[in-house]
Amino acid sequence: RKGKQPKPTAGKEKDKGSKAAEAAREREARQNVEAARWLLAFAGDLPAGDAWAPSPKLLAIETLFLLVVCAPRNDVFLLRALRALSSSECILLLTLTKRLLLLYHSGTLGEFRGAPWHSRVPTLAQVVDWTALLLDAHASDLMLRAASQPTVATLMRDLHALSRR
């Protein structure tokens, strides 16, 4: 027959499937942010800035953050979930992404690729995406804090310098 019409229920089922997939992506983004928030609670007593002395705790924090950055995500939902973080949580995560970017630029993060868990080391693109999403989610607050807090201003300058490399 000419112009045969599809069953009306087929479109509704497709809508339900896409809504379920969208809900799953949003749930994954919230889980990524909750994992980062748990990580920040664990890191609670680390000094401000990036003058962290190497320690087993710092290694554990960085390893867990690598796993969070590697986790599957949808940027739209992750951005929405990252907006729920406080400014201090965002600053600490930006400090961690800065450390990862420095490791990439020095060539030492690539050494992890030979480790048995090499698939869990994020790509440079994943680290840059997380950095950009954190900056997007808290841009106005970070600019206001940078004007009054030297450590935030230094962090922003360092991230800018790393982006130009």
Overall description:
The structure is a single chain. By secondary structure, this protein is mostly helical. It is 71% helix and 0% strand. It has 7 helices and no strands. The termini are far apart. The mean pLDDT is 78.
Question: What's the quick description here?
Answer:
The chain has 165 residues and is an all-alpha fold. The chain has 7 helices and no strands.
Strand content: under 5%
What coarse outline follows from CA principal-axis ratios?
globular
Query: Termini separation (Å)?
Result: 62 Å
Low-confidence stretches at least 5 residues in length (pLDDT < 50)? Answer: none
* Mean of pLDDT: 78
Topology pattern, helix = H, strand = E: HHHHHHH
**Given the helix and strand composition, which structural class is it?**
mainly alpha
Q: Note the total helix count.
A: 7
Estimate the helix proportion, in percent.
Answer: over 70%
Radius of gyration: 20 Å
Main sheet?
none
Report the oligomer.
single chain
Number of strands: 0
